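Here is one chain, start to finish.
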Amino acid sequence: MSLPVPRITNPQAIPVIGVDDHLPPVAPERMTPQALRERFAAPPVWAPELPGDGRRFFEREPRAASVLVPLVEREHGLQVLLTRRTDHLRDHAGQISFPGGGAEAHDADAVATALRETEEEVGLRREHVQVIGAMPHYTTVTSYVVTPVVALVRPGFQLTPDDFEVAEAFEVPLSFLMTPAHHRRHRVEFAGDTRQFLSMPWTSRGDDGQARDYFIWGATAAMLRNLYRFLSA
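Its structure:
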């Protein structure tokens, strides 16, 4: 019997083994709303770099899930809307995530799951959301088979985060996340098992002027890396 996969509870403490500054950023002209619509309508030949986290924590039946990758159309460029999960949740507590969650029997498809979960988690209403495509499945160590649904979001919305699931919602420039010089590689070994992951640390300032640090890592960073590969292909 194989040993359990170790949970990473303090990812910031895991050594950085490399930074991908040798890779070019996605060109600005590929990150406009129209360019994204066109790319998803006629996708290039490509393959995701990271199909999943690796070996699962435990033998739980895989469960379908969806997340929304919300690209907010701001005057200064597209922004990725992310959430910080509350600390008491069973899975991925305190982590930076896309809004989303497990599929329900009444969901028509992966898009329906992503839209429903996003509205439930952060209050983003569907009339502000234009789905433009989906990325390949991503399998997490917690046995979720996740479909990332990519959408453009029209400004003018008001968020009402669910206090039970979402500690806060915030935006990060898509251009920052699509620049591999900001992608750091981590590796840790435990009882003969190796875990590797990407991180994309982001610092912003709140309305009070205070700096806020957000450690984007794990599945969220991996799905963003796959988006980078898709837009760069």
